[in-house]
Amino acid sequence: MSQAERDRRVDYVEFPSTNIEETKKFYTDVFGWGFTDYGPDYTSFTDGRLAGGFSVASQVRAGGPLIVIYSTNLEDIQARISETGGKIVREIFEFPGGRRFHFSDPSGNELAVWSDL
Question: According to the CATH classification, is domain 3-115 in 3.40.50.720?
Fold first, then answer.
């Protein structure tokens, strides 16, 4: 992607992590993300479209922007999150345009997964 195409678009998202190795395993197992380590306190991820990173933090504070991931099968992803150390914090619900649920990762970051199916 050229600089002009990237101009004024979300380019990178960073999250805190209380355990980098646990975080990498969770997001690899649930979503298939790839990781590149930059020392023991930082790892970068790519989901195939957007990149971001996780940096070591002593704690994670709730709140802030909500990152929403798309999935064609909410029930499957919800089960994988629960099986892999995440917690469902809001069960699947309907909204105009689709359905979604919220979860927290092993560090406590809250994200959502949605589908228009």
Answer: no
